[in-house]
Specification:
Number of helices: 13
Shape: elongated
Largest sheet: 10 strands, mixed
Distance between the termini: 23 Å
Radius of gyration: 29 Å
Number of strands: 12
Length: 372
């Protein structure tokens, strides 16, 4: 029997125990794939939402770390539009609202004639006007709410007519509802307020224009700062919390899987003391015995890792089709994450096999030969 055939034979010797051990690793790896993908997707979702409009800078409260920034006076929009290097400024109000059967829908309030609408593709109907109770639905939001052109949407105590359906390159915008800024201010009781001002700089603005506009905003508008979309996303407390929670939960799942691997391999070594002693008596080096045990542990963990990756991948796909989740977070698991998860399972198995391998290599030959 070859060396690797012996390794596979040892793994298959206790199929029930090996299966449960691999299952424990699978749970840990699937948790890593699902939770990290969700955390990254959450970050990508908000970054795409901020980037899609083509704004160069986003102005918001400097002290806020809330998921949705604290509103401030919309009167600053006109003042910011007159800053040097600024081509256009547009106020934005963003809210998460419970709409009919949907527990949370992202709702944007935009100024009707601003540049924010330019990147959208109108599939049917028209854009809402400033003085009417009308909304435009993203393609995913329209499916989720089961609304079509001409239907009404209940928001708080008011009814809004669906006047348009659109698609966007931004994943969250496809699952969002758009209305005129004044209408969203009314429905949320935030008259004369916005929580972002988007700034688009002039095409001929020099390389230092970005920093100059930042400095002007800080000096002229107390409590406000201008940041790029990436900086806003990195400062968002909800994104930071999601990443921290996903990491912590993944580590707990991996530790549980690691304990299972170590216990299984160690039990296998203790049960095979006689066999290991025979191998040593036949001339096997102790390093070769250690290598065999470490590879057994690695194979077990790798099998569990592959299973966890498959489970995690299909779980993410299922989330994309769930009506309560669709259109809210981008859950696409990239190849780098899947490969990293597999490498993590291999490293985990190797590390967990070191102690059992050390114990196995220290089996006294004479004592082991008499052990049953």
């Amino acid at each position: 029997m070859s060396f690797f055939a012996l390794v596979i034979h040892n793994v298959r010797r206790r199929p029930g125990r090996s299966f449960l051990t691999a299952l424990g690793v699978a749970v840990g790896i699937s948790a890593v794939v699902i939770l990290i993908s969700l955390a990254w997707g959450f970050e990508r979702t908000w970054s795409a939402a901020y980037n899609a409009s083509g704004a160069d800078l986003l102005v918001g409260k400097t002290t806020t770390r809330r998921p949705l920034p604290t509103p401030f006076a919309a009167s600053t929009v006109a003042e910011m539009s007159r800053l040097p290097h600024v081509a256009e400024a547009a106020g934005v109000l963003t809210e998460l609202l419970s709409i009919e059967d949907a527990p949370a829908v992202l709702v944007f309030g935009w100024e009707p004639r601003s540049f924010l609408w330019n990147h959208l593709t109108l599939l049917e109907g028209r854009w809402p006007k400033d003085d009417e109770r009308a909304v435009a639905l993203g393609s995913v939001a329209a499916d989720m709410l089961e609304k079509s052109l001409g239907d009404t949407v209940q928001i708080e105590e008011h009814e809004y007519r669906v006047c348009g359906r659109f698609t966007s390159s931004s994943f969250p915008e496809n699952g969002a509802m758009l209305m005129a800024l004044r209408q969203l201010q009314d429905v949320t009781a935030r008259e004369g307020q916005v929580n972002f001002v988007t700034l688009r700089l002039k095409p001929d603005a020099g390389p230092k224009a970005l920093d100059e506009v930042r400095a002007q905003v800080r000096s002229r508008f107390a409590g406000l700062s201008a940041e790029t979309s990436g900086e806003v996303v990195r400062r968002n407390i909800a994104i930071q919390a999601a990443k921290a929670m996903s990491l912590a939960t993944s580590l707990v799942a991996l530790v549980i899987g690691a304990v299972g691997i170590t216990n299984t391999v160690l039990m296998s070594v203790l049960e095979r003391r006689h066999e290991i002693a025979v191998l040593l008596a036949l001339g096997w080096r102790r390093a070769r015995v250690m290598k065999m045990i470490v590879i057994e542990s690695t194979v077990l963990s790798a099998l569990g890792g592959l299973t966890g990756i498959v489970v995690g991948f299909f779980a993410l796909r299922a989330l994309q089709w769930a009506s309560w989740f669709r259109g809210k977070v981008d859950t696409e698991a990239n190849g780098w994450l899947l490969v990293s998860a597999l490498l993590l399972s291999v490293c985990l198995g190797t590390l967990c096999g070191l102690y059992p391998a050390w114990r196995g290599a220290r089996v006294p030959v004479i004592e082991g030969l008499y052990h049953e």
